[in-house]
Write the structure tokens for this entry.
Amino acid sequence: MRTKFGDDKTDWAVRAGGAILVLFVVSWFKSCEQLSYVTRGQTDHTKVSSISENRDKYGQLVGYTIHYGVNNKIAGRGMRGSSGVGIEDVENYDVGQSIEVVYVGDELSNFSSQIKGTENRFWPIMFVIFLLMLLAGVIWIVITIVRETRSSKR
């Protein structure tokens, strides 16, 4: 028997597919942002200017921000940058320490930087997972359509 849109049998699949699609688009955007550091990133050697604590709304320590100056070769001037690190990683940094920074963009509106070696692999991994989930959903839909057409011919 063919199900109609709005039935309990198809409603969950449509909602799940929509949620996966939205998360796929978000992870695609975020993983492209991380990929830009690899493909277009410029490297600069700089010094840590300050370290500040990051706290949540309840006052609990959730991480640290490492502040530094970047000599932006594209813009031809110095710019300020910062990068977040975890609680366990802050002991690797001291004020005045030399660090290597990767940055993209030439103006404040599109300037972004991060400490080299602190790449965030979460979003690229999520992109691959959601891509596989979308492909599995498409295959499931095709198999369902083929089964229904074969059963209706009998």
